[in-house]
């Protein structure tokens, strides 16, 4: 998998977090794996079709999802429910959409498939390539991961 | 006549929550007429959200959901029109793209309205819609709409 896909995706995430939450993202060292085994409980997976094919999985700790959605909604939540899933799914959807329009500037024309949200560890995700790139990201005092599995 | 005993639990919770709003001053883009409208739009969305998220049963809150949804929907259309007029006035170069984004959002809202009218007590449908548009609205105002003000400010400096 080419590293050229990575930056447009990270830049899209950074911009959205900066605009919406005034949170400065910082990326840590890239990791490589053969499958997607998320570290965090709330996972949003988004399919990519077109010139590039594959999946991006946003893996968020539960506390971070609560913080983000509560900040947006101006109210407190007792448990992770459809509303929260939908709000965090849309966040991943927006970031991926922006990432794809960044990539279209490099000549790739892609579409995205609506987000799929899974809760819990030890869930598996099907992947398009044997090589998964993982971007660990620091968001304020929280961490989340982006799993990227894309092929041309 | 039976007197209904007000449910204190809901009232206390509601009052506490009413002080909080979705609108934040940091969402302002710096074009007064648009910011005023965004504030109004967020207030209307807030009303809808409070009803949707209240602990009342669907039967109890369905009328309020419908009323606050329509109240907000009306304003979405009026606001988009007005915001697009501002863009045109300043020859905003991304007008077409922005207009398309507004149109897609309106389609999404209409699609929800259609499904909602077919299946009024489907709480999952309402939760899915309201969670999604919460994120959508904040992203739109802090992302796309911010580009309008950046452009206008640059133009006025020239
Ligand atoms: Fe707009």
Give the topology.
The complex is a heterodimer of chains A (152) and B (158).
Chain A: H1 6-21, E1 25-27, E2 31-33, E3 42-50, E4 53-60, H2 62-73, H3 82-104, E5 110-119, E6 132-139, E7 142-151
Helix pairs in contact in A: 1-3
Chain B: H1 8-18, H2 32-53, H3 58-89, H4 95-118, H5 123-142, H6 144-157
Helix pairs in contact in B: 2-3, 2-5, 3-4
The complex binds fe (ii) ion.
Fe (ii) ion (FE2) binds at residues 83, 98, 102, 140, 144-145 of chain B.
Q: How would you describe the overall organization of this protein?
A:
The complex is a heterodimer of chains A (152) and B (158). Chain A is of the alpha+beta class and 152 residues long. Chain A has one domain (3-151): 3-Layer(aba) Sandwich (Chemotaxis protein chec), CATH 3.40.1550. Chain A has 3 helices and 7 strands. In chain A, a hairpin with a 2-residue loop joins β3 and β4 (53-60). Chain A starts with 5 loop residues before the first helix and ends with a strand. Chain B has one domain (2-157): Four Helix Bundle (Hemerythrin (Met), subunit A), CATH 1.20.120.50. Helices cover 78% and strands 0% of the residues of chain B. Chain B contains 6 helices and no strands. In chain B, α2 runs antiparallel to α3. The N and C termini of chain B lie far apart (71 Å). The model of chain B is unreliable at 1-18 (pLDDT under 50). The chains are: A alpha+beta (152), B mainly alpha (158). The A-B interface holds A 15-16, 19-20, 22, 69, 72-75, 81-91, 94 and B 17, 20-22, 26, 46, 49-50, 52-53, 124, 127-132, 134-136, 138-139, 142-143, 146. The complex binds fe (ii) ion. Fe (ii) ion binds next to α4 and α6 of chain B.
